[in-house]
């Protein structure tokens, strides 16, 4: 996409605005499938939580993707988008037995990550195939909040509890058809991931009727110029070689599965915001924009850095700005960042706004959520209308006092 395309979309649909580039999503999808092209059965389950717009789900379905879901609502979104239950895996954490049973009744592949639920479910439904999420106790991820495979994590069944798992399976006669792990997001060291994979391979040997091994995801994408990223091609070569060797050792063909979210949609996303005010203080110059962490919380929550460009003045001389939002508390997107000279009314573009951006937005300060647009075949298509004040009131019940 060109700067002018984004400026035009900001003018046509208003700001703040999320824009997603379909071509980038497609290229990332095919990059991953190509990296594992030598695996006979390879499956991608897109992590819905990253970006859950139904039009995005439909687009990924057409590419051949399945879905990774973490709530019954995400399962319902997937079914609404046209996915078959067999192409959806459900990996919740801390949900009720009732929700798990409801999803299983839909024919969706369930993934259980604690001993208590495993025993309860196996006792009641031994005929329903189940995947088990293992915690390999391998620290991975770029932030403590997104590292989920370490020993203190709430996710997965500890690898050290494997004897307990095997005892439950023996007692219930339940059918285990998959083994799963997810160590965390923003993985940089391929060898650390491969070490965790070895733990999963060793675990898989204890289950004789597996159909698939799911390695989760967590591939890092670049967030700024010169930023490092996961070498997917190197990773594909190394894991493919090991997986094919394990298949021979295991004695049957298995499906190798991944659950990428950020990798597929992050770089495809652009967040556009208009500059309301340029404010000079004694220590800095603030660029105050028409949005806040109610629409893009990652910088405040994770300390993430989104590259920001002034697409209204892309060739302008760079100056230092602190970009801040309109929320009534500290609401900072960037401190003393070099950005092309900013004037009131300019449109700023945040890169890497496809993953965990709109999906984590809120109505804080009673602000409405922005619209979403899909750039597809050289044209912007509205895929979510901007909220209105009526949407804020929609589910409120006014008490007559």
From TrEMBL:
Subunit structure and binding partners: Homodimer.
Gene3D superfamilies attached to this UniProt entry: Alanine racemase, Lyase, Ornithine Decarboxylase, Chain A, domain 1
The catalytic residues are 328
Any single GO molecular-function term of the entry would be: diaminopimelate decarboxylase activity
Q: Which cofactor is essential here?
A: pyridoxal 5'-phosphate
Pathway-wise, it operates in: Amino-acid biosynthesis; L-lysine biosynthesis via DAP pathway; L-lysine from DL-2,6-diaminopimelate: step 1/1
Q: Does the keyword Glycosyltransferase apply?
A: no
What GO biological process, any one, is recorded here?
A: lysine biosynthetic process via diaminopimelate
Reading the lineage from the top rank, the first entry is Bacteria
Which PANTHER family did the record assign? DIAMINOPIMELATE DECARBOXYLASE, GROUP IV DECARBOXYLASE
Question: Domain Orn/DAP/Arg decarboxylase 2 N-terminal: where?
Answer: 24-266
N6-(pyridoxal phosphate)lysine modifications at: 49
Describe the family membership recorded for this protein in Swiss-Prot or TrEMBL. Answer: Belongs to the Orn/Lys/Arg decarboxylase class-II family. LysA subfamily.
Q: Which InterPro entries match?
A: Ala_racemase/Decarboxylase_C (IPR009006), DAP_deCOOHase_LysA (IPR002986), De-COase2_C (IPR022643), De-COase2_N (IPR022644), De-COase2_pyr-phos_BS (IPR022653), Orn/DAP/Arg_de-COase (IPR000183), PLP-binding_barrel (IPR029066)
| Enzyme class, spelled out | lyase
Record function comment: Specifically catalyzes the decarboxylation of meso-diaminopimelate (meso-DAP) to L-lysine.
Q: What is this protein called?
A: Diaminopimelate decarboxylase
Residues reported to bind pyridoxal 5'-phosphate: 218, 356
